[in-house]
Specification:
homodimer; about 110 residues; mainly alpha; elongated
């Protein structure tokens, strides 16, 4: 996918979608965190939350990679995981949209 | 302090005090965690909580060391930090109580 050229507008659209997905995923994580914290009954629960956050941070850092060489894969994954809707990608060229949809349908 | 002998009763008293301090400190940590989580406004706050828990876990793991060779130091620190009260040490021999009080007054 290194061959894809991203126009200035496409870069802006991709960045906005990427940031939006990150905000949405983190908002869901914050809700989960609130539930877990409300249920804390002892030390083990606190460290369980720490383990959970360590894992989420690692996963999130790996997933949200904005390099253009991997961006269609990243956007496809975010679409598949429903952090993005198709409309969030409006403004990208058909070449990218097609690849993203194809990958989203294929992956996992 | 390696020379101190701990009777069976003293070991039980020390264990109980140690566990009590740990429960108290973790309960305070849980309260702090609840406050932090209630204030989460975005992703950075979530990772800030993760950093905070990483630090607290490291500190707690280092502090709560039940080896008899270091136990008077540990109990002195817990007394100084008010996770323990003097009454929690009732049942320890005078030799240990004196050392713990002395260290609690000295330390830090």
């Amino acid at each position: 996918m290194n061959g894809l050229k991203w126009s200035k507008i496409e870069k802006a659209v991709a960045r906005q979608a990427f940031d939006l997905a990150y905000q949405r995923e983190c908002a869901t994580l914050a809700s989960k965190l609130k539930e877990m914290v409300a249920d804390v009954k002892g030390p083990a629960d606190i460290w369980g939350i720490h383990d959970f956050l360590s894992e989420q941070r690692k996963k999130t850092d790996e997933k949200y990679d904005f390099r253009y060489s991997v961006l269609v894969f990243v956007l496809a994954r975010l679409l598949k995981e429903r952090w993005l809707e198709k409309a969030d990608l409006d403004g990208l060229g058909e070449d990218k949209i097609e690849k993203i949809k194809y990958l989203a349908a294929m992956e996992g």
